[in-house]
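1st attempt posting a full record on here, be nice pls
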Amino acid sequence: MHTASNVNFTPNPDWAYTAEGHCTQLPHMKMYSVALLTNPDLWDIDLFLMIEAMQSANRAQGFTAYDLCYVSSEEIRSPSLLCNSFDHLIVSNSPVGCAEHNADANAFIRHHYRTGSNICAVGSGVFQVARAGIISGKAITLPNEHSKIFSELYPEAQLVQCPFTSGGRLHTCAGGINVLHLMTHLISMDLGRDVALKVADRFHIDCTMNSDKAAAQTSHFLNSLPRPLKQSLLAMSDAIDAPRPLPSIAQEAKVSMRQLQRLFLKYLGTSPSDHYRLLRLDCAREILLRSHMTVTEVAMMTGFTSHSHFSKSFRDAFGICPSEVRT
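the predicted structure (as tokens):
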């Protein structure tokens, strides 16, 4: 009969042993390596939310479940970074519609995708992932204001109207609050539902959100509106660069201008013209934050033919000049 002293015993790393010899299972201890490929000049709220979600998961676990490292476009040539393997590669804030190809960034993304990394493209970061050539045949989402130019540049992409997509090892997100829904979805896959619930509770969001449910929830507000108002809002969103005359939008919605004004006032608390103008200005601000386009180029892209009119409207809406957004 063998005693404990002469048995070849290898402790299970997933169990802890008490002084009395009892054992108890430890929480999942795997560490996930995360590379953040970002432009330091275009730091934005999307990246901040992703980092906050992962740090919240670390706190919930009581150890570093997500080990983060930042990778700039100047650092991606480093042989050590190519040799490293990452569980997740997050691509954020790429210049919108930039025709210039960053060959090093493209190669970096392709390499890690082929070697097994999950690629998470957030907001305009989808442009960089598209330039890397890994989106063909995959469902992609991004902010609505970028959809038209993205479709023109990458007709092979399957664009969907959805807050986030998660298929295989490619995940895309439209940005904003949707970042947190995507992150809790990934945290649930990595660390389990209990940890994801703790992170969701930290941000007061629904942990059970998946891409289909998120899309349904996003459309719930629109679907609750009267048909003419919903149709008018969609028409405005589809015509940012070339604004349509309001009478034309009303006619298409089969209501008079007076009826349309009443609907906007009742349900949105504003007028059709004010809503349409602010919608275009919001798009302009996003493009200014996420791209290197000139103020004049952004004004033209959002339907303002006069630079002075655009600047005045922007200042009235946000309290700063367009040129001050990046400072």
